[in-house]
Amino acid sequence: MKLANVEIINNNRIGDRLYKLEFFSPYICKMASPGQFINIRCCGPGQIDPLLRRPFSIYDTDKKFNVATILYLVKGRGTANLSRLERGNMIDVCGPLGNPVQPTADKILLIAGGIGIAPIHFLAKHCIHSHKTVYLLAGFKDQNYMLVEKDIMRLSIDYSIYCEQNMWANRGVVTQGLHNLSRFQGYHIYCCGPVDMLKALQKKLAGAKNQVTALLEERMACGIGVCQGCVQKIKNGRDSYSYQKVCSQGPAFNLMEVLFE
Amino acid sequence: MKLANVEIINNNRIGDRLYKLEFFSPYICKMASPGQFINIRCCGPGQIDPLLRRPFSIYDTDKKFNVATILYLVKGRGTANLSRLERGNMIDVCGPLGNPVQPTADKILLIAGGIGIAPIHFLAKHCIHSHKTVYLLAGFKDQNYMLVEKDIMRLSIDYSIYCEQNMWANRGVVTQGLHNLSRFQGYHIYCCGPVDMLKALQKKLAGAKNQVTALLEERMACGIGVCQGCVQKIKNGRDSYSYQKVCSQGPAFNLMEVLFE
Amino acid sequence: MSDASAPNLEVVLGDITLSNPVISCSGTFASGIEYGQFYDVGALGAVTTKSFSLQKRQGNPPPRIFETACGMLNSIGLQNEGIDDFLNNHLPVLKERSIRPILSIFGENRTEFEKISAQLTDCCRYIAAVELNLSCPNVEKGGMAFCAFPETVKEVTATVKKMLNIPVIAKLSPNTGRMDLAAEAARDGGASAVSVINTLVGTAFDIHTCRPRLGNVMGGLSGPAIKPVALAHVYKLCVKKIIPVIGMGGIFDWEDAVEFLIAGASAVGIGTANFVDYFAAQKIVDGISRYLKEKNIDHVKKIIGKALH
Amino acid sequence: MSDASAPNLEVVLGDITLSNPVISCSGTFASGIEYGQFYDVGALGAVTTKSFSLQKRQGNPPPRIFETACGMLNSIGLQNEGIDDFLNNHLPVLKERSIRPILSIFGENRTEFEKISAQLTDCCRYIAAVELNLSCPNVEKGGMAFCAFPETVKEVTATVKKMLNIPVIAKLSPNTGRMDLAAEAARDGGASAVSVINTLVGTAFDIHTCRPRLGNVMGGLSGPAIKPVALAHVYKLCVKKIIPVIGMGGIFDWEDAVEFLIAGASAVGIGTANFVDYFAAQKIVDGISRYLKEKNIDHVKKIIGKALH
Ligand SMILES: Cc1cc2nc3c(=O)[nH]c(=O)nc-3n(C[C@H](O)[C@H](O)[C@H](O)COP(=O)(O)OP(=O)(O)OC[C@H]3O[C@@H](n4cnc5c(N)ncnc54)[C@H](O)[C@@H]3O)c2cc1C
Ligand SMILES: Cc1cc2nc3c(=O)[nH]c(=O)nc-3n(C[C@H](O)[C@H](O)[C@H](O)COP(=O)(O)OP(=O)(O)OC[C@H]3O[C@@H](n4cnc5c(N)ncnc54)[C@H](O)[C@@H]3O)c2cc1C
Ligand SMILES: Cc1cc2nc3c(=O)[nH]c(=O)nc-3n(C[C@H](O)[C@H](O)[C@H](O)COP(=O)(O)O)c2cc1C
Ligand SMILES: Cc1cc2nc3c(=O)[nH]c(=O)nc-3n(C[C@H](O)[C@H](O)[C@H](O)COP(=O)(O)O)c2cc1C
Ligand code: FES
Ligand code: FES
Question: Which residues lie across from A8 on neighbouring strands?
């Protein structure tokens, strides 16, 4: 993990409030594994507001050209500032942070909801690289992520996309992709997306034998395990739980042990 | 006085930390008189830091093209932000504020120190326009204001420039221009510059019969006479004083009545 | 706001009824006359005047303003021309414009509050309420603020209430410990509401001259920086249901205002924001209305305290 | 820092001597081990650990963090694995790296402080000082913070001091009225210094869900927003010369740190800044040194309290 000022190669709008930011960083490209994230300062030079760094999953790394990519949605002031940056601007990035996800199973089912596609995309690439059987289920509200499908296609894996609103893809929510669960017997499932999706998956997969790993999000202050701000309630043992840090003990957790409120 | 979002026409660096900002505003060009200032929001869009507006004197107005100009020095965060703006960007401006200076005398001596040249330049133009006899004394620390001299030359008035550090102009401080005070008998004197210059002038002109008007500065919050934040201690009567608001009761005050601490 | 579908913005704080919950804060709006150049300040819920004292006060030496991170320090020192000035010069203009202000007053001791009130008896019907600035130093108690002493808060409130018999608001300071006790005392003295919060004590220094940034060394911190603190005070008072609260401190836009309302404030005060955007208070009225409309809520009272349950 | 012309940064707070005045704040630096990945934290004046309690504490439900204007709210709720964890897992690593931390501890009552101290008697020489987090609720006093009761502050301080006989620091809260009384009590109890300030109570709400932004509703405000308030507390204590002060609250860069030093603080604590710039504390040491050099001041002690005169 390192703190560095890196140069932006591209920061393109690829949908409504959806951007892809590419930056030059041999270090991140070398060190980053799926599941990890980076922490970006989103205020202008000499500014202190917004104060805290913002966490973003790694979407892709190109080791040949040393370009790392994140995919992000403009939510509030931090991401709005980010979206105004241009090629040639510098950003202050720390990473890679969090624990790498290292799938051991041979067959991998990836489930992404919305912007949750970001870490899932990087994980998919990694799985293909290590010759695993990969299936990807992605769900989006609308056709905003159309250009992301291009990246998915380029992975040359089996996938289905669910979309709530239009004819671009299968109509529905991503959990419908699991209607025939037996098809994914023996698959290790990795998922990332909104809490409602994760809750639905937890319910749906409750009886199943699959291992299910969820990549979680929580508001962060430090990103390096110091402040204890980013905790999730995780079951440990039958009736007990503990608050575990998403940044340094996650972001990957066994979905079946996550206690949503 | 109006609040308006105006378009920047030019924002050029003309010296070390010295900028000239031109913006399009028929309203300011029509309404602004010498001595008045505008109040600019210096944070980015959607930002609240830096919080308060920053006051700047009007340096020039071009009524033909409806372009108003300010001359400013980068001091802190607000002016640093301002200096990063470019042609085509919008800024939030309120003005004109403060009381107009309306010279009645026929002969006018203008004295400017450093960035104090900004309101003095606009006043000079106005005096020439109303066919007064004008003499301008300007003092600068170094040759940073060389390009400002060009604007002064263009006024076609008598002037002398004093400079502490080099050969560009008369060597010395601006008060030396008053060595032969009798030369300016009957002149109404207007001055603007650092407190030390104003104090020196107050001393030097103590016995003289000239009327002396100083344009003062003070940290401001509202700029419109509401908060009482921008006061200066002004003598009224023999032993008494009151705190008067630079924004709404000034910025012009009788220099002889200003009580510097 | 004449269309039938516009939400009702009226709020009631004890015996005070306001057409909408947006009030200008004392000291940040003068008597509203300057802002009248920009918009009709009569369309606000109320205009609170700068605090007036019995006699003219010079105020503190400059500099009086210093900007800090998302906030500002001020040490105006309550400069004002005295209550006479309000009665002779401000009130006539306000009357003419049909604006019934909340008049903010302060004294150095109970007697001064009494003497000011004595001068107001004739003009009570032109004033919506009197706000007692109890953050000012009580010289009888060694200069500590009035609100540090609940018993005094009660006495002063009761005195003014009795003399004027118009609504009284107690403005409380966050710098003196238990605000709940001060609020209870205000209620017991007959106040209709409390204004919460006044500025936080703060300071700043110049590291090159080693001099304070303010002539008076200490100042009051206001602006967005203090919003979380103000909200906590408002919430804690409202949970206890002591007395209606006018919430203030760092409100910059309608979202901030709604946040105070759902935290339990019956009305909100707009202070520092007026300096930055002269239309701030007006925009906040509109914003609250839009928010209610979008959520299909017909009356603002339905959101007051919504986050308390 | 070996060159002869480098200014001397050593500061003395009673019986505590630090190689420089820059300390990490409790709860923002864990035990310093994580930051050791970035730089040699042994080069700081001291590392203050997260506050430890007698038993493991789960802490508050998430969300625990919310960002505000130039500040942040946290409601960690003092989650920690208990003092055993410090002794078994953190201290050995620190020893190995020759770092003598300031150990922050807290209890729910005096007995708990006593019991923790009892566990520390054997390792005192590995600890530079014990900091008592007196902002935590005292269950014996209905949950109000320890520092609201000067008598309790004195008792607890005296108890710990007597048991351990190493330097004791009392960390005071700005939320409970008269800090000067708490500081005097700490001094009378035998403290070597006070740490000022802990976070300000604050909150925030989501105007769409009407839910609090923090699982615990109330949180602590830190960061640049609170700097003017922290400076005012530090200044007021230092003017009274009660006890050496470790100043903290919103320090983000070396200029901020110098501002606290000239306001009278003998040392400074770096908190939230560590989250934003992992090198913040180290940079601040360098910045103070550069400042002194540029001003031709050979010893940092010469600027401490310079703005007080
Ligand atoms: C491990 C991790 C990976 C993430 N990866 C991505 C990604 O690849 N692409 C993407 O678009 N977004 C991602 N997010 C969410 C992203 O961090 C937030 O959308 C972003 O911080 C919002 O900042 P803002 O200033 O625009 O919004 P604001 O709402 O103004 O943010 C205010 C505060 O809330 C925090 N915050 C808001 N939403 C979240 C959130 N969901 N998670 C954590 N903190 C939040 C911010 O950090 C900030 O402190 C990730 C979050 C985490 C924790
Ligand atoms: C009536 C008037 C006219 C002015 N005209 C000009 C001009 O034409 N050109 C120019 O370069 N400067 C002018 N100034 C000064 C200019 O306003 C300050 O340099 C500027 O506000 C500094 O802002 P900053 O954020 O860069 O500095 P910072 O130091 O970061 O500012 C912090 C705070 O201090 C205030 N401040 C700092 N210096 C001054 C000052 N000298 N006067 C008032 N407030 C100050 C700012 O408003 C702000 O609130 C004028 C000031 C006044 C009062
Ligand atoms: C410049 C200034 C002057 C003020 N004067 C007064 C005053 O005279 N009486 C008073 O009760 N409060 C006064 N206040 C406090 C405000 O009314 C308000 O309580 C405080 O500023 C918090 O709100 P804000 O953050 O929206 O400004 C003043 C505040 C400022 C900034
Ligand atoms: C996330 C977080 C956790 C904290 N935990 C503690 C703690 O355990 N004990 C303590 O005494 N102070 C704690 N504090 C308070 C800090 O030590 C410090 O007093 C405060 O944050 C002000 O400094 P700052 O503005 O530089 O952060 C914590 C602060 C933060 C932001
Ligand atoms: S963000 Fe600080 S511990 Fe995870
Ligand atoms: S700046 Fe507010 S009165 Fe002048």
Answer: A23
Enclosing H/E stretch for B254: strand B252-254
- Closest ligand 1 atom to A70 CA: 8
- pLDDT score, position C1: 44
DSSP string, C225-249: GGHHHHHHHHHHHHHTT-S-EEEES
What's the Cα-to-Cα distance from C70 to each of A51, B24, D78, rounded to whole Å? 11, 29, 28
Question: Are C221 and D203 a contacting pair at CB < 8 A?
Answer: no
Which residue of C80, C211, C270, C276 to mutate against B (max B Cβ within 10 Å)? C276
CB of C216 closer than 8 Å to CB of C60: yes
Buried b (16+ CB within 10 A) or exposed e, B141-161: eebbbbebbebbeeeebebeb
pLDDT at D1: 44
Residue with tokens 């203090």: C226
Q: How far is D70 from chain B (nearest CA, A)?
A: 8
> Looking at beta carbons, which residues of chain D come within 8 Å of C229?
200-202, 221
The structural domains of chain B, ordered by start, are 2-97 (2.40.30.10), 107-212 (3.40.50.80), 218-261 (2.10.240)
Among A223, A66, A49, A102, smallest CA distance to D38 is for A223
Query: What is the DSSP secondary structure assignment for residue B216, as one 8-state letter?
Result: -
Please state the pTM of the whole predicted model: 0.95
pLDDT grade for D3, boundaries at 50, 70 and 90:
low
CA atoms of B155 and B148, how far apart (whole Å): 11
pLDDT, residue A122, reads 97
**Residue D147 among the catalytic residues:** no
Distance CA D305, CA A19 (A): 50
In this predicted model, which residue has the larger pLDDT, B44 or B80? Answer: B80
Phi, psi of D132, rounded to the nearest 5 degrees: -95, 115
- The structure tokens listed for B212 are 């002396």
> Which tokens in the block code for residue D5?
């012309």
State whether ipTM is beyond 0.90. yes
Residues with Cβ within 8 Å of C201's Cβ and at least 6 positions away in sequence, in order, are C175, C218, C219, C220, C221, D229, D232
Rounded distance between C-alpha atoms, residue C170 and residue C14, angstroms: 13
The tens digit of pLDDT for each residue in A155-173 reads 888 888 898 877 777 788 8
CA A241 to chain centre: 25
Q: How far is CA C210 from CA A119, C205, D308, in A?
A: 51, 6, 9
pLDDT digits (tens, 9 = 90+) for D89-112: 999 999 999 999 999 999 999 999
Contact between C224 and B48 under an 8 Å Cβ cutoff? The reply is yes
Q: How far, rounded to the nearest angstrom, does the alpha carbon of residue B210 sit from its chain's CA centroid?
A: 21
Q: What is the rounded radius of gyration, in angstroms, for the C-alpha atoms of chain A?
A: 18
Q: Is the pLDDT of residue C40 over 70?
A: yes
B167 touches D at CB < 8 Å = no
**CA-CA distance, B209 to D35, in Å (whole number)?**
69
Active-site residue (options: D25, D136, D147, D238): D136
What's the CA angle centered on C274, arms C32 and C95, to 5 degrees? 10
**pLDDT (tens digit per residue) in D64-95:** 999 999 999 999 999 999 999 999 999 999 99
pLDDT of the residue at C4: 56
Domains and CATH numbers, chain C: 11-61+78-201+221-308 (3.20.20.70)
